[in-house]
């Protein structure tokens, strides 16, 4: 018996044993991240088994690679908010789950967790402000949208997380920042045990289309890319360097063009942003991203990108 035949026989025995011990296998998968679950199923030969498609869908998912935020993401999605993973490293993250035996897992991946208040809230806010200019809404930590002003909302303000249309990741004992005139990138202190570093942007106020400006090149690659993208200076007044927390975009086959992949946590589908010349129908988009670098003209062929609702 050849070595390849022995390997096939051993794998088939392991696969049969796992199928017989289904409760034990699911209990093990329940304690693994999405990447680790994909690797385990691939090693025992069940990853491409059609009969295990439901199990793979449950345990092999991006969200399980960020368990510290998984429950909060589920809460936002269940309340109708638009939750997305966006950035240049998303392709590598998805590849870790789709090709677990061949894809490398040693690099740190930076991904933007973008959460937009559910569709229709902005229109309702503008409608209310025509009658009461001081009207506003707030989003609780549980994802509920509460309208104000009222004594109740003021008295229970500690229960609310934001009055912005972009919902940030909740962090313990963090004081909310005022609405800023520029894009402020924030991030987790260190990557988690799966090598995922989540970042988020706080930019626009309530009732406005989130317009996010960022450098198309991640900070870790900017020193290698100065010949194409200048010195990575931004138009922000107080600094001459691009924000180090921005997730970056993917350079297309043309050197001056970029694409922006994203994963919709509501539909569980990967897609790419729509290239725009100008924003003529803001109600169609959950986010608009402008890629810019250096003061003045930027060597980017497609600056505006939109994420559809």
Strand order in the sheet with the most strands? 6-7-2-1-11-12
Helical stretch tally:
10
Roughly what percent helix? 25-40%
Span from first to last CA?
57 Å
SSE sequence, one letter per element: HHHHHEHEHEEHEEEEHHEEEEEEE
Rg (C-alpha, Å): 22 Å
Major β-sheet profile: 6 strands, mixed
Instruction: Give the tally of β-strands.
Output: 15
Query: What is the approximate shape?
Result: globular
Strand content: 15-25%
Structural class: alpha+beta
Query: Which spans of ≥5 residues are poorly predicted at pLDDT below 50?
Result: 5-10, 173-179, 222-231, 233-239
Overall residue-averaged pLDDT value: 76
Structural domain tally: 2
Task: Describe what you observe in this structure.
This protein has 309 residues and is of the alpha+beta class. The chain has ten helices and 15 strands. The protein has helices at residues 3-20, 22-29, 34-43, 53-59, 67-78, 90-98, 121-131, 151-155, 219-222, 226-229, and strands at 82-86, 109-116, 136-140, 145-148, 160-162, 184-187, 196-202, 211-214, 250-251, 258-259, 261-264, 269-272, 274-276, 285-291, 304-308. It folds into two domains: 3-63, no CATH class; 66-308, no CATH class. The strands form four sheets. A six-stranded mixed β-sheet has the order 6-7-2-1-11-12. Strands 8-14-15-13 form a four-stranded mixed β-sheet, with no helix packed on it. A three-stranded antiparallel β-sheet has the order 4-3-5. The longest helix is centred in the N-terminal third of the chain and has 18 residues, at 3-20.
């Amino acid at each position: 018996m050849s070595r390849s035949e022995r390997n096939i026989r051993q794998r088939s025995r392991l696969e049969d044993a796992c199928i017989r011990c289904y409760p034990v296998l699911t209990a093990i998968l329940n304690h693994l991240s999405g990447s680790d679950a994909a690797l385990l199923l691939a090693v025992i030969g069940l990853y491409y088994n059609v009969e295990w498609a439901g199990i793979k869908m449950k345990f092999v998912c991006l969200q399980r690679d960020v368990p510290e935020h998984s429950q909060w993401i589920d809460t936002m999605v269940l309340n109708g908010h638009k939750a997305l993973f966006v950035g240049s490293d998303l392709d590598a993250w998805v590849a870790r789950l789709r090709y677990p035996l061949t894809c490398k897992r040693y690099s740190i991946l930076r991904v933007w967790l973008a959460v937009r208040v559910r569709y229709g809230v902005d229109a309702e806010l503008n409608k209310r402000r025509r009658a009461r200019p001081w009207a506003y809404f707030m989003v609780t930590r549980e994802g509920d949208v509460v309208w104000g002003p009222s004594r109740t909302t003021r008295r229970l303000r500690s229960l609310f997380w934001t009055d912005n249309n972009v919902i940030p990741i909740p962090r313990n004992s963090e004081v909310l920042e005022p609405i800023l005139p520029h894009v402020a990138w924030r991030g987790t202190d260190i990557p988690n045990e799966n090598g995922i570093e989540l970042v988020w942007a706080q930019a626009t106020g309530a009732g406005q289309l989130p317009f996010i400006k960022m450098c198309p090149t991640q900070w870790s690659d900017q020193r290698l890319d100065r010949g194409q993208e200048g010195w990575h200076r931004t138009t922000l007044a107080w600094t001459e360097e691009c924000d180090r927390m921005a997730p970056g975009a993917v350079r297309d086959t043309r050197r001056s063009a970029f694409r922006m992949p994203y994963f919709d946590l509501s539909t569980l589908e990967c897609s790419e942003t729509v290239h725009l010349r100008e924003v003529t129908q803001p109600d169609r988009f959950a986010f608009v991203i402008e890629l810019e670098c250096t003061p003045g003209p930027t060597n980017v062929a497609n600056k505006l990108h939109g994420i559809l609702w």
